[in-house]
Amino acid sequence: MPYLLKSEPDAYSFSDLERDGETLWDGVTNPAAVKHLREMKQGDKLVIYHTGNERQAVGTATVSSVDTSDSKTPRVRIKASRRLEHPRTLAEVKEHKIFSDSPLVRQGRLSVVPLTAEQYEWLTKP
Fold first, then answer.
1. Nearest Cα to Cα of residue 125 among 91, 79, 92, 102
2. Which domains are delineated in the chain?
3. 3-class secondary structure per residue, 23-82
4. Distances (CA, A) of 87 to 17, 72, 124
5. pTM of the predicted model as reported, rounded to 2 decimal places
6. DSSP β-bridge partners for residue 114
7. How far is CA 59 from CA 69, 74, 100, 121, in A?
C-alpha cells in the first residue's frame, strides 16, 4: 500500500533524505498516523510531502524496514527514491476528485496518510 509522509522542510526535507539515502521516520505521535506506520510493510511506496509554506509532494521513497516491537513507536526506515519532476501542490490535490475522501484533504494535520494506487500514480506521474 502506498502512503504519503508529511515533513516540515526546515526540520527534515526531501533533500536531507536524498543526502542521507535512508533514515528512520520518527517523531510521529498522532494515534491515527502511528497506526498507519504500524501497517507499513517493507517495499511499500511512499510520497514525501513538504508542509509549511511549500505544501506540495516533492519526492518518492520506499519502506526499507519496519520494526513494530514497540506498538506505541513503530520504527520505520525509509529509503530515498527520486525527486518528482512536477511537484503536486495541495491546491492541485484539492481540485482532483480522487482525493475528495482522502485524509490528506479531510484531516490536514495527519502526518502519515494512506493513498490509493490511483492517488499515488497521479501524485508521482511525470
1. 92
2. 3-124 (3.10.590.10)
3. EEECCCCCHHHHHHHHHCCCCCEEEEEECCCCCEEEEEEEEEEEECCCCCCCEEEEEEEE
4. 16, 32, 8
5. 0.95
6. 3
7. 29, 23, 22, 12
User: What digits encode the pLDDT tens for the residues 8-28?
Assistant: 999 999 999 999 999 999 889
Based on its alpha-carbon atoms, the radius of gyration of the chain, rounded to whole angstroms, reads 13
State the Cα–Cα distance between residues 111 and 79, nearest whole angstrom: 18
Q: What is the pLDDT of residues 78-121, one digit of tens each?
A: 999 999 999 999 999 999 999 999 999 988 889 999 999 999 99
